[in-house]
Amino acid sequence: MPEKDQIRSHVYDGIQEYDNPMPGWWVMLFWGCIFFALPYWIYYESGVPGRTIYDNYNEAVADNLRLQFEEIGELKLDSATVYQYMNDPKWLKVGESVFEMHCVACHAAKGEGKVGPNLTDDYWIHVKEIGDIAKVVEKGANGQAMPAWGNRLHPNEVALVASYVASLRGSLPAGSGKAPEPNAKKIPAWQAPAGAAEKTENSSPDADKDSKEKSPEPKPAS
Question: Model-level pTM?
Fold first, then answer.
């Protein structure tokens, strides 16, 4: 009997099987996968920035944001901007995504507070008016217990996440979430800064289009 047709000695339910070796291509593929796994693991799991799928995802998100930001230009980190985009559902979604990516670890998913303070109540430490939120996000606070994000985020991301944080105020029932910090003070409701309404109107693409298409009214003949 040829070597490749050797039958094993054991019998299961009257069934015997050949003792044939695995095909050569399969064995080569098996060992090839083992040798490939080591350099693959070293390359992607060595901690070098920019190599993991998470880094690639973040880069893709950043590229997408840059394309979106071309529509609104670079935003100012002031009260009028934060107040304007607090009422803009489209751009508020961008602020929400930034919050979910960077802020939930300290402030929790709904802003109710965890390590960081509750963002849904009326008690604040470093904020007296709506524009201060952007300053805190940009420069940090409490000796960097609240980290400065100005050197890690696009200015538009800072402005839009500040708008989203401002929108969280009053989103949860009073008394829910983390209790106010001992040195926090109750501040008035958000007020529209002077010129905010005018800025919103002037920044509207439809308003620009209408102003271009609108022809001057004829003056009556004297």
Answer: 0.63
